Amino acid sequence: MNKSREELIKAIRGRRTSGKEEYAKPFFKWAGGKGQLLYEFDPRFPEDFGSGSIHRYIEPFVGGGAVFFYISQLYPLRQSVICDINAELILTWQVVKKDVQSLINILQDLQKAYDMRDLAEQQNLFYQVREEMNRERSRFDFSSYGEHTIKRAAQLLFLNKTCFNGLFRLNSKGEFNVPFGKYKKPDIVNEKNLLMASGLLTNTIILHGDFTTCLDYVDDRSFVYIDPPYRPLNKTSSFTAYSEDGFSEQDQVRLCDFFRKAHETGAKVMLSNSDPRNEDPDDNFFDDLYKDFLIERVRAKRFINSVGEKRGDINELIIRNYKN
């Protein structure tokens, strides 16, 4: 891997880089982000990615966008298509693309308000913003775009940077319910990164909807990367509440059907998921589901667990419809 790739991965993972180049990285702290797996993904991306024969990148579960930021800064693409069913998340991506300076201005005000308070007052500010955002949700018009959209995106980013562990979690009512994180000096704004991210979104179509929404954009010159909410490793480890509807085992089966349809167009398709054999060596759910495709197991760190000693290396699955 050449230096630019190495430096880009460091930047996306939030590490300090040694070079002079500036790289855009995810503006959301996102549980389950794929920054730690980029070393495994890079050699498995299609070999003809850099030749220009692939002109469109498609990501149906964009989340924090670690893979999007990596690919869009390395490869010549005519267009990207990113999608997510989480309306709050997609709203924020849209604002970063369309009105990044207005967003930055609101975040700077929130940064000043936060920094001038002591810990108890910071906590009060956090819960005031969270309560206002949740209260407005029932009457918020996600279908229209305006000043209310920019304000909500700023609130969400503020909560994301100041809540516990940077989690994004919604309850069954669609309300943000992560508690205060007690950070003394969080970087709420990161103006330079937001400006670079906005530039990368210039030729990007941003969709709100189910993963099947992307199928109309898939053709034989597309690369599709699929990162769904993971199938739980066990009955108590589910962390799929990025939307109020969750993501069931039946949805995983529907997703396999989407994978096959994308494959049939001639597109290159890659999917990642948790390996159920981490908990049960006889659980062949994904091996059976994707038996017609290339399945690999790679090591990755698990960070989402309330018990620290249970965070560690586990197997993750990488499934592709092509070989390099």
SSE arrangement, N to C: HHEHEHHHHHEEHEHEE
| CATH level 3 topology of the largest domain | Rossmann fold
CATH architecture classification name of the largest domain: 3-Layer(aba) Sandwich
Total beta strands: 7
CATH hierarchy class name of the largest domain: Alpha Beta
- CATH superfamily heading of the largest domain: Vaccinia Virus protein VP39
Mean pLDDT: 89
Domain count: 2
Terminal CA distance reads 16 Å
- The number of distinct helices, counting runs of at least 4 residues, comes to 10
Q: Please list the strands of the largest sheet in the order they lie side by side.
A: 3-2-1-4-5-7-6
- The structure class reads alpha/beta
- Determine the fraction of residues in helical runs and give it as a percent range: 25-40%
Shape: globular
- Please describe the biggest sheet, giving its number of strands, its sense, and whether it closes into a barrel: 7 strands, mixed
Spans of at least 5 consecutive residues whose pLDDT stays below 50 are: 236-242, 304-310
What does this structure look like?
The protein is an alpha/beta fold and 324 residues long. It folds into 2 domains: 3-85 and 209-239 and 248-320, 3-Layer(aba) Sandwich (Rossmann fold), CATH 3.40.50; 92-191, Adenine-specific Methyltransferase, Domain 2 (Adenine-specific Methyltransferase, domain 2), CATH 1.10.1020. It contains 10 helices and 7 strands. The protein has helices spanning 3-12, 38-41, 66-72, 87-98, 100-115, 119-137, 147-162, 191-200, 249-264, 285-289, and strands at residues 56-59, 79-84, 204-208, 222-226, 268-274, 294-301, 313-320. Strands 3-2-1-4-5-7-6 form a 7-stranded mixed β-sheet, with helices on both faces. Helix 3 (66-72) links the parallel strand 1 (56-59) and strand 2 (79-84). Helix 5 crosses helix 7 (147-162). The longest helix is centred in the middle third of the chain and has 19 residues, at 119-137.
